[in-house]
Amino acid sequence: MKHLIPARIKALQAGLSEMGLDAAMIYDRENLIYFAGVDDLEGGALAVPAEGEPALFCLWMEREYIQDTSGIGKVIPFVFPESNQSKEMGKWLKGQGFMAPRLGFTRYFVSLNDYLLLREASPDMAVCDIALLCYKIRSIKSPEEIQRIKTASGILKAGMDAAFAAAAPGVRETDVLAEAEYAMLKAGSFGPPFRMQVLTGSRQQLMHPYSGDALLEPDAPVVINLGASYKGYVSKMCRTVFLGNPKKQSVDIYKTLIKALDAAVTAVKPGMTCAALYDIVWDILAEAGYEKYWVMEIIGHGIGIRQTEFYPVLAKGNDTVLEKNMVINLLLPTVYMKGAGGPKITDTILIGEDGGQRLTDYPSDAV
Description:
By secondary structure, this protein is of the alpha+beta class. It has helices at 5-19, 29-36, 63-69, 85-96, 112-121, 131-138, 143-166, 173-187, 248-267, 274-287; strands spanning 23-26, 45-49, 55-59, 74-78, 102-105, 126-129, 197-199, 221-230, 233-242, 298-302, 309-315, 327-330, 347-352, 355-358.
């Protein structure tokens, strides 16, 4: 996707100018993929001035490869440990002649050491957050990006098939997950984009659970939440399988979630607000009597290079307008009803000109 980089850099520079910033200092892998066009650069960084030519920093031994594969013309190598990306970024900063530069960073991805080295080079710098700007630029997917997400979505089917086949009472959560991950790697996944989940019934209402040595319980739901990646882009899908004779309430909850998801996928279209989409889901949950057990006011996010991209956020009251060629992951929260709640479902959806298209097209039968 090298040919897409100049337009992406131009969009970033326009955003920096609008925010009154002098440059973006990008360290995180996901924005290096997007703005530099390289999906396997480690220990690198990208400096993008609001005006002028960007510079990409990498290990000297990777310079030729990065020069050939990235969309950035100026590639500056460094020899480690004598130097590193931030020492070189500091030199670049000094060379720009900024007096007290206002620098944009993506909020979660800058180490203290990198920050200190930049501050040593430019003691009067001001630090600003450009995470939302980057997510917003990334939210409209190109045809090449959509194809990679579609490929990752297809790979997910192999993982879900394997998980369904392995799920049985008395089997460890991690054993089911191992079968799913192996199947996806064999099918072409570049690896999981997040800590995937296989969860037995009693552990599904934890806020941040992960698969462990718990044994799948008889007559209970099993949540299977999987992700796959392909050339820097990801997809995500969750389904619930029921073992034996589960509680009717649990099955009803899952059927309600399926109904809400189906209604949202049918309704979603360019020009709709996130709030309007949320309200469709909420109305179905409320009609079923589950409104007081629905504690999350978010039903999804954008998805692309990262499994959770924070533009758009499909949340109650959010007036962000959905656009053509956004890709979203829709619905994951569950009904938090003690003893019965916990089933989950989610799909990766492309917003096309005529509405929503399920990229993770996999059966969602409740039993």
